[in-house]
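Lab notebook, bench 4. Still working through the backlog of constructs that have no structural model yet. Next entry is a single chain of 279 residues. Request: give me the structure tokens for it.
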Amino acid sequence: MKNICLIGLGYWGNILLKTLVKLGEKNITICEKDKKRIQNLGFNFPVISDYKKSNADYYFVATPAEAHYEICDYLLLNKKNVFCEKPLCLDKKQVHSLYRHNGKLFVDWVFLYNEHFNYIREILPKLGDLKSVEFNRLNYGPIRYDVGAFIDLSSHDISMLCTLTSFDKKNLTVINYKTNHKSAQDDSNICFLNDKIKVLINSSWEYNLKNRDVIFNFEKNILVWDDITQTINLNGKILNFKSEKSPLENSIQTFFNLNEKDYLYNKTLTLKVSDIILK
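Model written out:
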């Protein structure tokens, strides 16, 4: 039986916990200092306030981003297996520093474990020359206060883009702005890549319509992936494809069964995306 410690019980920490339970994990310790979050837990798991007092084998880090480096550095130094939500750090030097340890580090680029996305990756070469891609990640909240929309939302699309094509980051124009002037961080973001493939990324927390689609425009074909309806539309016809597991389930199971190939893939991608989104 796996010995698991979940650090942080905020928005994503709760989702991680429910997914772990769904996967049949029962030996879970929760590290959380906020008593109100514990009161509304809904599960009977042991609770601690200091992750250093845990002796788990697998750690899930779901704290605000500014705490990631200190926590992951300590755990990896002690040769623990660490699953960390993105962004891994807020400074790319810290990202590189974490990989000096011998512990296994896995960053949750969750869309890369989406079965619809991986199916699209398989069929893309059959559709001809890819001319442009448009990513839309728009909705009203949940709003983060530790990072802006570029790091939180657009990083998903950049992670997918990095697996689809190579490009020069110098050709990426990034515009961050506030739709709501009261927002603690830039709540909206537009990215434009003027490279061999033209790319538009449109992200916002402050949008009154939920839109999660990716449009692939080829010379003779157009493919639309709607992540809300879980459909893939090719030239006006919905393709017959259904995913079996959620992206997060696939991501967690990859972490639990992490081999050298998957580890290097995740590490390479983390370094590449961090180099683009961080200073």
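Notes after review: The mean pLDDT is 94. The first helix runs from residue 11 to 22. Flag for follow-up if needed.
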